[in-house]
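In this section we walk through a basic example: taking a raw amino acid sequence and producing a predicted 3D structure, encoded as discrete structure tokens. The instruction is simple. Fold the sequence below.
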Amino acid sequence: MNYKQLTFAREFRGYNQSDLADSIDGLSQSNLSKFEKGFGVLSEGIQNKIVEFLNFPTEFFYKKISNKIDNANYRKRSTTKKSLITEFESRCKLIGYIIDQLSQDLEWPEFDISPLNVEDGYSPVKCAQYTRRFLRISPDLPIKDIFTVLEKHGIIMYELNAVEKFDGVSFISDLGFPVIIINKNFSNDRKRFTIAHELGHLVMHNENNFPVSEYRDKEKEANNFASEFLMPEESIKNSLRNLKINELGELKSYWLTSMASIIRRAKDLKCIDESRYKYFLIELSRMGYTRSEPLRVPIDKPELIKKARQLMNNELNYNEREFIHFLALPNDVVDELLPRFEEKIKIISFN
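The resulting token sequence is shown next.
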């Protein structure tokens, strides 16, 4: 048994070492701790009890899943329990694992968006401008079908039910596939900014291509990338000079970004000063727009994983039992992360 897989399954089920030890006759927390560190031994009988209790197939414990989550974006990470973040990120890692497993039978689109080395002088703004040109998107046009555009160029997109504290995650799977996971429950304009933010990480901060200094403010750089990617300076700047509150709706409808991000863009481009910026924020709060903005913007849906599941069932003729065995995952995990028909409504909670 791969001891790291045992840790993975335990954390996915939300158990700490003491909880699991208390649930298994003959297992002590100290012995479990030694085993999970790689220098202890558990009897075959104890291992079988653990496998049965955690309800993961035996085959799963002989896999090797890493899927390092380098770029995870949380609204309130500092106030969120580490165990709950681990539980959430384990789902993201399993999505990466599923993508890798499916690649044995399916061919994902090639990731052809060139990474750029920010350590070599490429600013986030230049990276965003280059990426738009590569995607053949005119600087005076909004990016409408953002899921479709990125999936066409090999980024596998996923919407996950999660609570407000989580925004998005991007990473390269163990087999080299770029993945962006975002919170399904956010407004469409917030989803679009999160997607652009995570794209910035993949373009600028993918250490599989270039080393990135630990002293860089990667979150700020990804935000700057997203702002330029969604609202190019050369096309939006004139519209932001002497910005008025009653102009926000029209700008939001065109650029498909939130009023809050438009106001911030105006400040960053020095189209409004600090006092005007604060005035806008006060007005948004007074009107209740900080909780929910008016004017719902459109957004498309991710399709690659949905189509992959359909191909496995309909073209490659995997029945449900064979598909579950192929993934070496429990039924409930497949139902949650890779539903065949109706999407499940389970929400990952940080409460």
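Looking at the output, two observations stand out. The CA atoms of residues 9 and 54 lie 7 Å apart. Residues 82-102 form the longest helix (21 residues). In the next section we compare this with other chains.
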